[in-house]
Amino acid sequence: MSVIVFVEANKGLIKKNGIEGVVYGKRTASPVVAIVCGEASADQLVQLGEYGADKVLHVNQAVTAPSAVDIMSQAAEQENAKWIIFPFDNTGRAIAPRLSARLKAGLVSGALGVPEADGTIKKNVFSGKAIAAVTIQTDQKIIAFSPNSVGLQRIGGSATVETYSPVIKSSSINNIETRQLEGDIPLPEADLVVSAGRGMKGPENWGMVEALAKSLGAATACSRPVADAHWRPHHEHVGQTGVAIRPNLYIAIGISGAIQHLAGVNQSKVIVVVNNDPEAPFFKAADYGVVGDAFQILPRLIDAVKKFKSSQN
Length: 313
Ligand SMILES: Cc1cc2nc3c(=O)[nH]c(=O)nc-3n(C[C@H](O)[C@H](O)[C@H](O)COP(=O)(O)OP(=O)(O)OC[C@H]3O[C@@H](n4cnc5c(N)ncnc54)[C@H](O)[C@@H]3O)c2cc1C
What we know:
Blueprint: E1 2-10, E2 13-14, H1 16-28, E3 32-37, H2 42-47, E4 55-59, H3 65-78, E5 81-87, H4 90-103, E6 106-111, E7 121-125, E8 130-134, E9 141-145, E10 160-163, E11 192-196, H5 206-216, E12 219-222, H6 224-228, E13 249-253, H7 259-265, E14 270-275, H8 282-285, E15 288-291, H9 294-312
Parallel strand pairs: 1-3, 1-5, 3-4, 4-10, 5-9, 6-9, 11-12, 11-13, 13-14, 14-15
Antiparallel strand pairs: 1-2, 7-8
Helix pairs in contact: 3-4, 5-9
This protein binds flavin-adenine dinucleotide.
């Protein structure tokens, strides 16, 4: 019984969440078959072997959620898959429930780690306020894992690569146009995120936030009122009603830390809060806190990061 992993590629690059899915699959069972959908270079396909894939099946076309369900259900049958793994990102969220209905296979969404020896899988519930331990009762099991659950670890294996051309039925949904979000680092995949809220007073002050993000190689994010006021684009809004992220480092500047904001960011590995109100609720969720005026602290932080980086060269 094998593990198949949905891996998305775009413009020749395999997405980081897909590579993590291969690591996740390897820690769940074996053999691991990566189903790569989208344009990817031969080197990248082969490289998946280093992360634990035994076999790579490449579908060299962009897919919609319904076509991905056709691909993954046929791959599951061909590979006799017991486990089917997706990243719990926008793509995984669209495909995994559809596949679950098609295969009548149980699905756990937002898994925080690999299944334990008794099959228990942990996942967040109530917007990250509690953790539930669940099991899947069907023989075939689908897991959509939270990004950063297992990280990226090379184990040094090798994979065979085959072109895969399953039958894709015509769908009632046609992809007319795909628009790439602006910005160098897509927020859901970012390891480092610099985020700011209403404490920045206005969009004219975002240069400092962007400068800090640039010096760190981080993506930028914002609170909801900031996006609602059109200070920043809506795809940067994080929280319960925005993007849920799980970066290694989340720096929150001038954000109060309302429960709806925390719901989308409290799974970050390290949280740093900058706020001039020592009573701001965000400090309770912070690993590190700086009480002070963002307009004084940000230039010093940017300077410190630049000095540190140049001392490393
Ligand atoms: C149904 C619902 C869903 C929601 N979903 C979301 C969501 O997904 N994401 C989200 O973010 N919000 C969401 N909200 C809104 C949420 O409740 C808060 O209102 C919002 O997060 C507050 O944004 P903020 O922290 O930027 O602004 P504020 O609450 O105005 O906080 C600004 C902070 O900046 C600090 N500050 C001010 N000046 C400075 C300075 N010079 N230097 C340093 N710090 C300073 C202040 O002390 C304060 O803590 C939702 C609300 C509802 C009702």
